[in-house]
Design brief:
The protein has four helices and two strands; from the N terminus they run H-H-H-H-E-E. About 15% of the residues are buried. The protein has a two-stranded antiparallel ribbon. By secondary structure, it is mainly alpha-helical.
Amino acid sequence: MAKNDSFEEIANGLAKWAKERDLLGKDPHIQFSKIVEELGETSAAYNKQKHDDLVDSIGDLLVTIIIFSKQVEVDPVACLNKAWRTIKHRQGKTINGVFVKDSDLDG
């Protein structure tokens, strides 16, 4: 089995790939629309319980998000790190399948 590349390696590779295809200087609204489209495909694959399509759709969704982040000059690796640092020690409860942080719980 081949070793997976790190998130950072993939993000850097995608940035190079997008730059070579002249995507980075384009209107980010277009890429944002692609994110929404891929999210819809991810939802459809999940709802239809099509695992292979779900794997493909999640990958495509991540690709569109990373390209969008590069277009708006936001480092996707830094975003993921910031989110992880924020939530990794977060306490709360899962209610009806949704995690609710302590600060949002009543009483």
